[in-house]
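Researcher: Please translate sequence to structure tokens.
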Amino acid sequence: MDDNIVIKGIETNNLKNIDITLIKKKINLIIGPSGSGKSSLAYDTIAEIGNYEFMTMFADELSEPSYKVKSFHNMLAAVPLKQNNHNNNMRSTIGTYFGLNRSIGLMYAVALDIDEDLFVLNKEQNLCESCHGIGFIKKPDYNKIINFNVPLKNVPFKCWNRYKDFFSQIIIKFCEDNSININKTFRDLSDHEKKLLLYGISKKKYSIRYKKNSAFSRRTTYYYGVLTEKPMLTNYNLGKSFYSEVECTECNGRKYSKQLDNFLLEGLSIGDFMITEFSKLKLLLEKMKSLRNDIGVSFNFNKLKLFVDKAVELNLGHLYFHRAIPTLSGGELQRLRLVQVFITQLSDLLIVLDEPLSGLSGEEKNSIFKNITSLVDKHSIVIVDHGSVFYDVANNIITLGPKGGKCGGELIDFKSFIKDQHSASVFLAPTVIKECNINLNSKIYKYKGVNLCIGLDSMNLIQGRSGVGKSTLLREYLPQYFESYIYINQKPLLGNKNSTVATVLDISNRISKLYAVKYKKDKKFFSNLTGNDGMCPKCFGAGYIEYGNEYHHIMKVECKECCGTGFNKNLKKYLLNGLSIFDVWQLTLDEAIIFFKDIDPTIFNTCKIASNILLGHLRIGQLTGSLSGGENIRIKIMKARNTLARIIGIDEPFKGLSKTEINAVAIYLNELRMKGKTILVIDHTEDVDVYFSRTIELINENDILTSRVL
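Model: Translation complete:
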């Protein structure tokens, strides 16, 4: 059809001169292996063209587009909705982010016939005197400070690890005076004993001679509990990392001054309204029908009601207007933006969605699916997703492959791709033999504790509705219960902007050392790290040069001097088995398996494991910032093979992966299980339950996280 969107000669990132057609007012689905170019096509090309074409008509200082295409026509203004959340401003709330705070203030002002300025949060006289309108205050975090499984004599408080000799002695003396067994772990103490150690103050001073650096020092002081925030050593205060933001006890998160508690609408102050969950607000707004026809507020009221109704429909009923944006998951923020799409008065937009059903339980998926498919009445839709539920409703399916990285970026046959996915073998998960009952009484956020049972030395799948507390369980509670525990999530790999696949896989130094040993030189001579001799003097080891500044778009251009490797060009003449370190940096991990097989067994084994979980297409020198979400979490999981932790918690390891990749990751996790690890995975990807010995549905019962085995 002449009305279709057509983009030709796409070469953005790893896409290989492909031509695509998008059907307007229909669902266009993009699928393919992780790293095959799905996001490059959907967001870096389609959405960016739609944004750029629209913005050039009015925006100042617009940056050059990064997409690379030969031609396009019939484009629409694009709305890219990703499953990520990079907002770190705790003052940014759902109410402020979506411009609804003023509508709420106006509603209260009109309904109560008073000045609207009384409800504005940027006026000092309207704010809570304690938290100044933030809704929370910083307090020492019990869970960040305490190591629950360490005996008292060994200092169970992480903030007292420095000068441990001093703290160990004073804890022992304080415990002796209060008849507390110093061999007990903090977990085993009575509530009274815990309170003494955390908040207590000794009746007398203790004189402690302790090791300080290479000498001894002496300090005479009272014992002050760790949560009293009174230092026992000079200038020894709790670091920022041991604090968390907790609800303000003065306003209980309402943010407003107490004087506003006198102005009530349906029994709620404006602060109460802001912290009431959408599911309850929906019923409240139904009772306020008179405001629908009030000329002064009808438009704002109806907009507010539409937002709340659609949020509840999209399974966001557990949220509220004062909820800080940084505390939302990527999926929750994507769906809130989707709410805006549904209630906007704009039409004929190009909506680009990333895995819109990931992280949702079965019931929730059905609701979101129906809503997304209804969008085609007003808009054109592009979806990146692997869920088979979209196969039948998509009017156009674009399949990329055949693999990831430089082995991807091509258009491949949909039917052949699906056939390959179904050919993956599935192992039979063994029956749970040993169990562990986790029982914790500890307040975190809105929860009071945990009471559930998992399979030990088994693979456990944890599911449950959005907002029930799945991530809180893995991130906050399990570290309290298990001494030997690590948590893996979808956040980007740690490292600086120059981090590469070689550095995160811990093979960069070994490669430099191989060349250094052969040529009898210092290892730094073959290292591209900043400040080392082997660093490219033009780009300082980055492999690229940046143009622009914080006020303008920063453009990265590959450094011609080092061909993007970050190495000094003089190193090209030093060869190892016929390859320079420049050449090695361009090898894929699959190619590196062959090259290092007889050279270095550690590098060989690392690359082999990466290949087994289908990461063989990554280049050794590839920047980690270029990795897809699926590639990112697989590297994190791969690195877990070296951990001493017995319990591993993983948040959404299968998100964004094809069935073949899911199977490879599941096999790898099962290998960890066979080495004595207990695996706990949060994931709602369809059909993954076959890999797990136990599937647990997490339930919130009276603010206690409990479960039932499915």
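Researcher: Any highlights?
Model: The chain has five domains: 5-85+331-421, 94-135+249-325, 139-247, 434-493+630-709, 501-626.
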